[in-house]
UniProtKB/TrEMBL annotation:
The chain crosses the membrane at residues 79-101, 126-153, 165-185. Residues 1-182 form the G-protein coupled receptors family 1 profile domain. The gene is Opsp_0. InterPro entries: GPCR_opsins (IPR050125), GPCR_Rhodpsn (IPR000276), GPCR_Rhodpsn_7TM (IPR017452), Retinal_BS (IPR027430). It comes from the Eukaryota. Belongs to the G-protein coupled receptor 1 family. This is OPSP protein. GO terms for cellular component: membrane. It comes from Serilophus lunatus (silver-breasted broadbill). GO terms for biological process: phototransduction. SUPFAM superfamilies: Family A G protein-coupled receptor-like. It is a multi-pass membrane protein. Keywords: Chromophore, G-protein coupled receptor, Membrane, Photoreceptor protein, Receptor, Retinal protein, Sensory transduction, Transducer, Transmembrane, Transmembrane helix. Its main location: membrane.
Length: 189
């Protein structure tokens, strides 16, 4: 799950950088691609390894068919890890996504001010794509984050195993929506 969040943030930033460059992209140089992949996997590893070393723990999630962080433990060790996960693996990636797509949209608006006819249509398509991607990101990850925070800081038993299934599935399926949205809403693909 964390690698999908970080990958979406890296992809949004790279899409912004690619679309706003004044020079043509070099499609034969994969150095930046590999750097992005390695950094996103390393960042994810940094945030998924601590339970293996005693900062929180892993255990069955929901009805026991998947494994995740132990959301139901109420001790300070676990709660601090949950808060850090929330900030560094949801809030910050979401901030990068909003920043990248916001800057991309501003760049497209500036270009459409120069080219009045075709620029306006392109701007509207990119705006729709950005809004759909951000909404999908929020629809996938906010229910899961809310369930995790309620399970961690709410009353014991408030989140039943059955109630945690749909947010878990939504979060784990989030990586499939971004490419689909990009393909269907981008005429350049």
């Amino acid at each position: 799950g964390i690698i999908s969040l970080i990958s979406l943030a890296v992809l949004s930033y790279e899409r912004y950088r690619t679309m706003t460059r004044t020079t043509e992209a070099d499609t034969t140089n994969y150095r930046k691609t590999w750097t992005g992949i390695i950094l996103s996997w390393t960042y994810s590893l940094v945030w998924t390894a601590p339970p293996l070393f005693g900062w929180s723990s892993y255990g069955p999630e929901g009805p026991g068919i998947t494994c995740s962080v132990n959301w139901h433990s109420k001790d300070a060790n676990n709660a601090s890890y949950i808060v850090c996960l929330f900030i560094f693996c949801l809030v910050i990636p979401f901030g990068i996504i909003v920043y990248s797509y916001g800057k991309l949209l501003c760049a497209v608006r500036q270009a459409s001010a120069i080219n009045k006819g075709t620029g306006r249509t392109r701007e509207q398509r990119i705006l729709i794509m950005v809004v759909v991607m951000v909404v999908c990101f929020l629809l996938c990850w906010l229910p899961y984050a809310a369930v995790a925070l309620i399970a961690t800081f709410g009353k014991p038993g408030l989140i039943t195993p059955a109630a945690s299934i749909i947010p878990s599935i939504l979060a784990k399926s989030s990586t499939i929506y971004n490419p689909i949205i990009y393909v269907f809403l981008n005429k350049q693909v």
